[in-house]
Design goal:
The protein has one domain (3-62). The protein is 47% helix and 13% strand. The protein has one helix at 3-37; strands at residues 43-47, 54-58. The protein is flat. It starts with a helix and ends in a 17-residue tail after the last strand.
Length: 75
Amino acid sequence: MQFYPTAKRVLDMAVAAGLLLAVLPLLAMVALLIRLQSPGSVLFCQPREGRAVGCSGSASCARCTPTRASACGGR
């Protein structure tokens, strides 16, 4: 009965690897567009309140500038 967990694990890893390879070109294109349109790094790490943990993310949000202040709620 040990065959099923091993086979399931191998199948899960194969499907995940296939999906990663399928999505990788799209992720690379999005990272390139972010890099071309905004200053700084595509990926960033910021501290979170409370416990000392870091939160990683991608810089996909538009930044407010004085010319875009009305679109950002006047901030």
